[in-house]
Structures are given as structure tokens and as C-alpha cells.
Amino acid sequence: MRPAASLLVRTYPARWRARYGDEFLSVLEERPLGPFDVADVLLGALDAHLHLRGLGAASEHSKGFAMTLRLGGYAAILGGFLFFIGLAAASALGDAGGVFILAFAAGGAALLVALAGLSAFQARRYPKLVWAAFVLPAIGAVIAVIGALGMVFVGDGLFIGQWSAWAVWFLGLAALIIGSGLFAVATYLTHTLSRPAAIVLVVASLGLVPLGLGMNVLPFIPEAFAPIALGVWALLFSLGWVALGVSAVRLDNPGRISPQGVS
Fold this sequence. Notes:
single chain, two-stranded antiparallel ribbon, globular
């Protein structure tokens, strides 16, 4: 019996556990639990406490694991698309790009959902890597979204303490990019989703942060072309996420998903 699964079941009311606890525990122990699964179970526990509703809950959760893959896949596609459109347009338009900054914020939120959903399908061999791969980019996505909203509604002044909204946004963006690279490494090691897409995401993550800080990671490129190089790297980053999302959606069928992951 895994302590984490047992602890999650204990969040449900005693009367619910007496009727469904054993069945639900066996469902939770069939596969590694990702952040999306934990959140889903805790929300179900809250609903059970409020309404004491739970008929069929255990069997529904066994289907819900496949739902996390589908939801994570679509969120990765949407997030990758909005990330690039928002970032590229806002960078080009400057102060006039408020709408596109909001698009970037929406993309960051979608990538947060993608991280939670797709991480539920990482293999048992790397549980610490899976959770680390979720935590860092998830925190970065939240901070980046807050910073983006600050740039739209607060402007160039101080936003949080001595930090401007832009500084908050860039800090969150850096964490999101670096964490996405870590997530891609986890995906590559676990053979869960597309490995070529994971490689693209790793390569893009390695180049984006230095380029964003003005460092020339490709010495043979003239300095005048640095903004173009930054745009290409951002496009690669977005395409990596979109490709991971597409591979997840393609895997979403009963014949290819088992309790241990993708067959």
C-alpha cells in the first residue's frame, strides 16, 4: 500500500470510505499519481464532504486518468500557440501590445494545465524528477502570468516591492522555460510522449533564457540578428509544446493507455 494513495483516500468522509474506500484505493495504486490526479482527488473529496455524493466515484476516477492525458494534450497545443503569438506580438508592439500580453498570460495558464495533466503519465522510475519537472515550471507559469497582468494593468511602475511588473514577468518566464526543459528531460527518459518533441523543447529551453538575457549562445550569428534568433528559439519552444500535446492527443485511446501509462 502506498502511503500517498492511502492518505488521499482518507480525505474523503468516513461513510464514503466505508462503502467505496477499498475500491478507490486499488484504483489509485494502479498507476503513479501526477499533480493533476492529486488535485482531482482532493476536489472530489471536497465535493464528497459537501454533498456526500460518490456513487461510482472509484470507477469514474479510473477513466479520469485517460482524461488527464487528453486535457493535458489540448492544453499543451493551445498553450504553445498562445505563448508564441503573445510573446512575439507583445515584443514587437511594445506598449501597444497589451492584448497580446493577455494572450501570453492565457498561454501560460494553459501550459500550467498541460504540465499537470501530462505529468500524470510519467513512469514510476522517475517520481522525483516528475514532481520537480512539474513544480518549477508551474511556479514559473503562475509568476509569469501575474507579471504579464501587472504590465497590462499597472504599467512600468513598481509592482511587488522593488520589483517592476516586467521583472516579475521575466523571472516567471525564466522559471517556466527552464522547468519546461526539465519536464522535457523527464518525458524523454520515461518514453511517455514524443521523444523528438521532448528534444526540441530541451534545446529551445537551453537557448531561450541566455538569449533573453542578451547572451549570444550562437557566436557565429551577428549581434544585429539576435532578435531574430530569439524569435526562432521562442518558436522552437512553442513547437515543442505543441508537438508534445499532439502526441498526447494521438495516444488518447483505450488500446494504448494502461494503468502504468502508455502501452
